Fold:
Amino acid sequence: MANVSVLRRILRRGARYARRKFNVELGSFFARLLDTVVEQMGDMFPEIQKNTDLIKEILCEEEDSFARTLDRGERLFEQTVAKMPEGTSVIPGASVWRLYDTYGFPVDLTRIMAEEAGLRVDEDEFNREQERSRELSRKKKGGASGPDNVVLDVHSIAHLNKQGVPRTNDEPKYAERTTEARVLAVFTGKDFVTEQAQSIATNPDDVPVFGVLLDRTNFYAEQGGQEYDTGSLVTLDMSSEFTVENVQVYGGFVLHTGFLKYGSLKVGDVVEAQYDVLRRLPIRSNHSATHVLNFALRKVLQTEEADQKGSLVAPDRLRFDFSYKNSIKPEEIRDIEAMCNKIIGENLRVYAREVSLSDARQINGLRAVFGEVYPDPVRVVSVGADIDEVLKTPQDARWANYSIEFCGGTHVSGTADMKVFVIIEETSIAKGIRRIVAVTGEEALKAQLVHRSLAAEVKALHAIQGAQLDAEIKRLTKELDVAAIGVYEKYVLRQEYDGIRKAFMEADKAAKAQATKRASEQVQQAIEQSPEQEAFVFRIDGGSKAVSQVARYVKDLKTKAVYFIGTDESGSRVAHQCVVGKELLSRGLKACEWADAVSQVVGGKKGGKDESAQGSGTEVAKIDEAIQAAKEFVKARLV
Structure:
């Protein structure tokens, strides 16, 4: 991610230089240079020869996005300089921070522009403002009540109607990243007021959360499963900024809720409304992905039964609930995901326009949520099929080969904007209802990186054995359980992992059985060869289970006392256990005291009764010393 930030910074500096020095119009300048770069440097950097169309698209998107930021930033920079007292050569750091914090204008470009104008930035003040803003944000998180508490109820809506406040025009939400709008109402959650002047700057410990109604907005209000936009409303003179934390629609009134960062906001103010692009882009991508997924489900499962039953479109994931009676096989998940990625790779254009409800319902293959009430006209979103062409022959069978749905949400312009699609969860949530959770874009790329890392770790299991393999198997069990990777990829990894684990467990079981058998034979032979000997101390390194199993053999020997000492299965701890026959108990030899003598050498814990005791120690290097201590103890007791 750091490399992406550096590349974006270089690209933006280059874009400004190209416009300033070459007088070029930004939008596709760098994309036009790509073919020459590939021709001259492709041999040295072969990766740039792949997906050149996608690279061009990303360059154009970045360039076009920055062109708007640059236009606004240069204008605001000039306004800032114009307000400076005559003869001043230092730009206030607070103004530079505001350019970045509010408008997203890069600080490094502000510094360059200042240098070009013979000015410099007050860096100390900039750093103080940056830290102050972070501190205020921290206080805000622990302070005022949340934006969910500010809602328009029926009485509030009735008041707005009585006052003649018009419904919000939200058409700009589909096209404009910034738009000018007029404040029509300020709502505290209880009352409508003409002005709100309490900000996080004046009331950092108790900043009020309130709602703002505009005459028009480019913010998307939460609806249709898609989450709301966040962003800011800034007065044109930059004297006030309102942070938008939530956007909801009530009877046609779009309420922006949040808090004032500084300044004041009153009815009649004209503001520049700007949503958070970095939040909107992944939401947009995930919403388009739900349409592509809906289409792929019907094709791969070969059924019309898979009807949408609910959805969530968030910045970090999408969730899609649908009706389907059967479980979905891993191979079907693979094919659904592959079809979605095929559509993404084809970079199909996404069309959207309003159509009369009666005409729209005639489209072959059209998808809509059962029971949903749609407006007339209704917005139709099509992936790959030009809606104008569709409406000429709506019953044409070929339209069933495209994703066409009723939808009021925001979408990508082309499917390649989604970059990658990964299904990370598939479950049953009710009888006949299944749920798919998926990710696109950066989150999908992260899932792929995690998968590659886990795949390498599973593959590495083939090269290790013994205690190391056992430890790695246990660790990977947990990692595989929680890994946010593709469902099918996890299934494949599980198959390989389970095969390795099964082979290890079978081999380990056989090895332990063999070790136990050898130890039992060793003990039996030693006792039979020395029938007069009353006490024995053996070293057994077959693990704690082997020690326990051998100990069972001697429990019925009433005239013998036996101690077993060795390493456990991991080889990192000492396993020890002793058994004392009834006749030797009467002579004062107690297993718990015998185990205590050994524990004093190997450490750890021990426990048991007079006839048997066991323990687990930490000092593996002292096993020989422990064996000697066991022998000396029993020799002293059985005199």
Notes: DSSP finds 18 helices and 23 strands in the chain. The first helix runs from residue 2 to 21. The two ends are 75 Å apart (CA to CA).
